[in-house]
Predict the structure.
Amino acid sequence: MDYGKRSNGTPKGKGYFGEIKAPWGKISTEISIGVNIDGKEIEIPSLVPTLDKSEIDYLIKGGKPTKAIIDKAVEHAKKRTKENKSPFAQEGEQASYSERQLGKEAGRQMGANNLSQYDDLGGFHANEVKGNIVKK
């Protein structure tokens, strides 16, 4: 399936959660945002595994990424970059939204911490990760 292109022209992928259907029927996979990391402007997914269900739902319903969501996305991107990985999910790294949520619920029941992530709706830009967000 064609999920469109990122601002740099590379094709968008399935994201960390696969296809997530918004209430109005649009499919989201990454919800890319532009951020400044170490003085360099880069594009990263905002739908990352470290988000909780309410943050994912907020993005899927068209909400602009909050500072907390941006911070989680940036930390996730930094971690992946240090591992010489793309900040974007690669083929085979997907778990469906329902599978992730089932895993989180099981983890909660066993006393585990946050296990979640999300990816792409419309393309927002976070100006130096200070909460100034502009729709692209």
Summary: Helices lie at 53-60, 67-82, 97-109.
